[in-house]
Design brief:
Layout: E1 2-3, E2 27-31, H1 34-42, H2 57-69, E3 75-81, E4 87-94, H3 98-111, E5 116-120, E6 123-128, E7 133-138, E8 141-145, H4 148-159, H5 168-174, E9 181-185
Antiparallel strand pairs: 1-9, 2-3, 2-9, 3-4, 4-8, 5-6, 6-7, 7-8
Length: 192
């Protein structure tokens, strides 16, 4: 784990978005707020600058969410191996307020262009042409990814009630770390 320990925010106060992260995550970034995620993308020496920057489709989607939500909720960004030896990001936001969730869904559907609707296990997954992101609302979660398969994997894990939290090491550590941004690298899954 890497943490900005000067901050007094506790990982547990960020909601339960971590429950939507499949157990095959290679890396997990737990952000205290959407604005912290956005701030990381504009820092010149960010370790993520090559794939998470102001031009990336995922960050454009995160900004849509921040505009709709206000940017105060914590968020999870995880990295997964996807089809054809590529990597994809999974973005998860926990939205407990049903009214706010419905408003966000409506706003995101309006702001995304060229949306293609697909169903997976009874859940609607929307694939937006602009920005090029697949997303779904499942229970209290907004799940989005650069890969449609990764969104399906998250839904599958939620339905089977499995997640990265089943890893005892991650579960223990995630409850004891403070900071604006917490980064966990799962060395067991690197290079698979």
């Amino acid at each position: 784990f890497v943490s900005d320990s000067d901050d007094e925010l506790v990982a547990d106060s960020r909601g339960d978005a971590i429950n939507a992260v499949p157990s095959d995550a290679v890396m997990i970034c737990d952000f205290a707020s959407l604005s912290d995620l956005n701030a990381l993308a504009v820092v010149d020496n960010s370790p993520f600058i090559s794939f998470l920057n102001q031009k990336s489709n995922l960050l454009k989607f995160v900004n849509l969410c921040a505009d709709a939500e206000g940017g105060d909720n914590g968020a999870i960004l995880s990295l997964h191996y996807s089809a054809k030896n590529t990597i994809s990001f999974l973005f998860v936001l926990s939205l407990d307020n049903p009214r706010k969730r419905a408003q966000m869904k409506e706003l995101i559907d309006d702001l995304c262009s060229g949306v293609i609707i697909k169903k997976y296990s009874g859940v609607t997954i929307s694939k937006a042409v602009i920005p090029e992101i697949s997303y779904a609302f499942y229970g209290n979660y907004l799940i989005a990814s650069t890969s449609h398969v990764t969104v399906e994997s998250s839904i599958r894990h939620l339905e089977s009630r499995t997640s990265v939290m089943d890893n005892p090491l991650y579960s223990r550590m995630s409850k004891s770390i403070n900071g604006k941004v917490i980064i966990h690298v799962n060395h067991q899954n690197i290079g698979k």
